[in-house]
Amino acid sequence: MRPSHDDSRTPAHGSPDTPASGEPVPAPLPDGSYSVYPYQGLGAGRPGPAKRTARSRAMLVAGALAVVLGAAGLLLPAQYVVESPGPTFNTLGSAGDSEIIQIEGRPSYPTDGELDLTTVYVSGGPSTNISIFQALGGWVDTNDVVYPTEFLYAPGTTSDEVDEENAAAMTSSQEAATAAALTHLDIGYTQELTVAAVVEGAPAEGVLQAGDTVVAVGDTRIDGIDTLRSVLNDGGGTAAEITVRRDGNEVTESVTPRQSDSGTYQLGIELATSFEFPFDVSIGAGMEQVGGPSAGMMFALGIVDRLTPESMTGGKHFAGTGTIDAAGNVGPIGGIRQKLIGASDAGAEYFLAPADNCGEVVGHVPDGLDVVRVSTLDEAINAVEKLAAGGSAADLPQCTP
């Protein structure tokens, strides 16, 4: 039976198989008649061309927007810092056209071999921006280490502040390295301690001032931090008469030190150290882009070698890292794994590592590189001299698990 002419689902023109105005098409039944409802076969219920076009456009716009947002996210700066192996510098050699260590006013001697300071490339942080691609590359590259920016830098730190801090640390390490080298060689120099700040609530608050130079405690002249600590500890917490130079005049103030958790007696002041050496030692020419305190020990080794007639290295290739103070104590640094790789890539045979970094050294020593553990400048010099004479690194202090 065919549908009546008033059936709204019947096409207005043409055969029953021809669509009109996007309406559904009646499907023939097995007996040849037509149903007022289309046969539910393949394609049944599909939207018409107009609806399909609108939906396709919406999907294309949404897809394009997702691609744009994704690309923007990948290109925006990532809040990570990547540390990579950096170049090495032979402290006995030159950087550019200048010797790294220059000595005037005292005889110095030619050297052979190499005493390399090691560095780390730092990408990201306040100084430079990196993309998420660079951060991902750092995660993939086993030679690199990736840190969240806030792990290394306080919020709000600027690139200028980082550069200034690194430059100040480098200058301080060079002065301490010179002092340590001269101490080892028994060459006299003077050292002054200046109050950089007074800790709030400390015994010295309201008594000592920033800018005061500590001259004496009682009858003892202060020629360095070790002397100051010793005389305060010997006093056992009794009131100390502190003589300082203030605005060109010497003033004596009474301060009662307070015992710290470690058992030592302290005034509660932050000190800055300045030195006056008997001759000029200039360090770091051609290394303006290198900052921080971690080259101190290698600078000190280079100075000792330059001031000693006999060659310390015996022509061998050493590398190392570590902070140093005027007394010759070697301290830990950051990026030890990257520095080991940099030293190996530069062809070093031996690496001098701070004892406090040994936990990061174990399991990360490149093939062909022997690591010796050191805690003081004297230990480092002893290690270099023994290895230069043909000794074995295995007979020297090691970083062990």
Question: How are the secondary structure elements laid out?
Answer:
Elements: H1 49-75, E1 80-90, E2 94-95, E3 98-99, E4 101-104, E5 114-124, H2 132-140, E6 145-148, H3 149-152, H4 159-184, E7 190-198, E8 213-217, E9 220-221, H5 225-235, E10 240-246, E11 249-255, E12 258-259, E13 265-266, E14 269-276, E15 280-283, H6 296-306, E16 317-320, E17 323-324, E18 330-331, H7 336-345, E19 350-354, H8 358-361, E20 370-374, H9 377-388
Parallel strand pairs: 5-16, 16-19, 19-20
Antiparallel strand pairs: 1-5, 1-6, 2-3, 4-15, 7-8, 7-14, 8-9, 8-10, 10-11, 12-13, 17-18
Helix pairs in contact: 4-6
Report on this model:
The chain is α+β, with helices and mostly antiparallel strands. Among the domains are: 89-117 and 166-186 and 278-395, Ribosomal Protein S5, domain 2 (2-Layer Sandwich); 190-276, Pdz3 Domain (Roll). The protein has helices spanning 49-75, 132-140, 149-152, 159-184, 225-235, 296-306, 336-345, 358-361, 377-388; strands at residues 80-90, 94-95, 98-99, 101-104, 114-124, 145-148, 190-198, 213-217, 220-221, 240-246, 249-255, 258-259, 265-266, 269-276, 280-283, 317-320, 323-324, 330-331, 350-354, 370-374. A hairpin with a 2-residue loop joins β10 and β11 (249-255). The longest helix has 27 residues, at 49-75. The radius of gyration is 37 Å and the shape is globular.
